[in-house]
Amino acid sequence: MNSILITGCNRGLGLGLIKSFLNLSAPPRHIIATCRNIQQAEELNSLGKQHSNLHILQIDLKDVDKYDQFVQEVEAIVQDNGLNVLFNNAGVSPKSTRLNFVKSDDLIETFVTNTVAPIMLTKAFVPLLKKAAEVNASAPMGPQKACVVNMSSILGSIGANSDGGLYAYRTSKAALNAATKSMSLDLKPNQIMAVALHPGWVRTDMGGSKAPLSIEQSCNRMVQTVMQLGEKHNGGFLQYDGKELPW
After folding, report:
1. Torsion from C-alpha of 222, 62, 184, 12, nearest 10 degrees
2. Which residues neighbour 152 within 8 Å (Cβ) at sequence distance 6 or greater?
3. I need a surface site. Which of 115, 142, 224, 234 has the fewest CB within 10 A?
């Protein structure tokens, strides 16, 4: 893999993914990390000083009007090789859980970050993904060619929903899953694949302290899964360890 772009890397799973990709025996030539405020991303900045292949770019993903400029910044890094992997990781989870506490503002903000932004960012990066697929025409479908990974959640599964609640988060991730399936069909003629990936229940600000997985455990397995993706996984909803999940 020549290049990967991961959004939302100032902390949590995004930062963990950056560390896991950097620790590969053969890491990508370009690892591009985004955050809303570079000044506040102290650990990410520290990694940037240690690794010349880590590029840190600032963007507020809710500002869709800045996407074209952002794509140009990424193109300046990857140049004629295009972008191999777009990993839409950034997401939010509002505190309201039950129906009587749901607020329309929470629903709208969550959908913008968790669903609208990944769709629009993928749309903006299609030319660079197509370029990578063309440059690596002889490679099989997957991350060595061109791939979109959308960070989903088992909470977005309709089939696995036995607890109710979590309206904003569940519906935004279910919608992202639907978008991922459409991407897998729309982009396949260009040899670009798309998958939805569940990180597991992880000890993050979102997951809480009782979660069974550490960030490092989840991210290391996710990176292994991403690196092993192939055409048979296109349009799939996978767990961090590659297990298929119910829609």
Report:
1. 10
2. 173, 176, 177, 180, 196, 197, 198, 237
3. 224
Residues 108, 60, 115, 203, CA torsion sign: negative
**Region for residue 208 given its phi and psi (left: phi exceeds 0; alpha: psi -120 to 50; beta: otherwise):** left
Q: Are 122 and 183 in contact (CB under 8 A)?
A: yes
Tell me which amino acid residue 123 is: K
Q: Are 202 and 213 in contact (CB under 8 A)?
A: yes
pLDDT band at 204 (very low <50, low <70, confident <90, very high): confident
| CA terminus-to-terminus distance, the chain | 29
Q: How many residues make up the chain in this entry?
A: 247
Q: Does 206 score more than 80 pLDDT?
A: no
What is the value of pTM for the model shown? 0.96
